Amino acid sequence: MKGEKMKFPDNFLWGGATAANQCEGAYLTDGKGLSLVDILPAKAEKRNEALFNPEQALKTKYQYYPSHQSIDFYHHFREDIKLFAEMGFKVYRMSISWPRIFPNGDDESPNEQGLKFYDQVFAECRKYKIEPLVTINHFDAPLALFKKYNGWANRKLVDLYLKYCEVLFKRYKGQVKYWLTFNEINMILHIPFLGGGLDVRNSENPEQLKYQAAHHQLVASARATKLAHEIDSENQVGCMLAAGQTYPYTCNPKDVWAALTADREGYFFIDVQSRGYYPSYSRKIFKEKNIELQWAATDQQDLLENTVDFISFSYYSSRLTSADPSVMEKTAGNIFASLKNPYLKTSSWGWQTDGLGLRTTMNQIYDRYQKPLFVVENGLGEKDEVTPEKEIHDQYRIDYLAENLRELGNAIEDGVDCLGYTSWGCIDLVSAGSGEMSKRYGYIYVDRDDQGKGSLRRLKKDSFKWYQKVIATNGQFLLEEGV
What we know:
The protein is α/β, with parallel strands linked by helices. It has one domain: Glycosidases (TIM Barrel, Alpha-Beta Barrel). Helices cover 39% and strands 13% of the residues. It is built from 16 helices and 16 strands. The strands form five sheets. An eight-stranded parallel beta barrel has the order 1-2-3-4-5-7-13-14, surrounded by four helices. It has a two-stranded parallel sheet with strand order 6-8. Strand 9 (330-331) and strand 10 (338-339) form a beta hairpin. Helix 4 runs parallel beside helix 6, helix 10 packs across helix 13 and helix 14 (355-369) runs parallel beside helix 15 (395-414). The radius of gyration is 21 Å and the shape is globular. It starts with 12 loop residues before the first strand and ends in an 11-residue tail after the last helix. InterPro entries: GH, GH_1_N_CS, Glyco_hydro_1, Glyco_hydro_1_AS. One of its GO terms (biological process) is carbohydrate catabolic process. One of its GO terms (molecular function) is beta-glucosidase activity. This is Glycosyl hydrolase 1.
């Protein structure tokens, strides 16, 4: 790597990312209401079944709910943000818990105690000159909205969400400049309960229900973007995609077409949020799935006139697909199952690692939209061992991140405009998919196990000092041998 020229922009925003429902805990503290995640049990207690059968989950009393305490960021945020500052964070991607502000989602007035908590979090960020990047809704809509309206299936949620947004934009004006309207908005098609507060099991046409709910979110995102700009002209609003380039299994044209079709499913959302209108190929999708969207009179204008300022996305690995049903060997991923790529390494959870895939993904997205990108999730979930000396040697994480960051740098050299990078789970937190603590991503170890036992003590991993050097050198440390 020595001798190569790779330069990150001088104002590049280095940092890390978390989500309220995976780290805050304090699930009923200071007036907070229940969120969607708060009824999901630990993995050993049929978390996946509960995820896709929320009505059954509501009727069942489980022994342990990981989100209820999580890593207790609610009471440890000062300690944690100080550690982020020690690493040199320029930005901290976090989310606000909607039910901490509006416990039932349709309350007449917001919960002042919830607002004060985030006042303190943002003040702590300002203390260390860390820019907050705030996700407004990260898989934690108030559970009451699911019970009362079946979530985003009901258009009423557009107005309730905008009321929530208006409170945030006014309260935190001058404290927050970067906003994301929805986390991984395309996930509503794959995990409709978390993505949209939906139960689709009894629907005559589940696809109709999911796409109608998605339409409501897209309209809400556009109107929130307009509101953010009106309240503070300094606000920058982005969309957020669960991304990862899909490769064809072979050069068979049918496999190539299958890969293109798979990628379009996710790009569909960003096409609307970035361009302001539904893509031409959506007509065929809706026809094949027998979908007829219900539009309000102002929807088309709202979408067209209020596109996002930048495009953010999560990237963990590329994907692989084939048109041949006999190709069966699959591997795990970020919700998406994928065919196993024989050219890639696989993690303990079956996720495959592909740094070059990040460069490819960034080029594809930037070529498509020509708007600034922000890599807001990227990381490796692995089991970490604590030595008797209280050390965590996570070279496997360093290797993964170094590979991805070098390719991110290469994408910038390719001409991609990238605002920053926030690695996922900069401090260990509860896995959204499995509810496990043992699937760790952080630079900071938290003493908490899958059964919720542990002291919550924070320990620095080897990757902590490594990332500290990466940030201090604005990425040039990545060019040195042996990192």
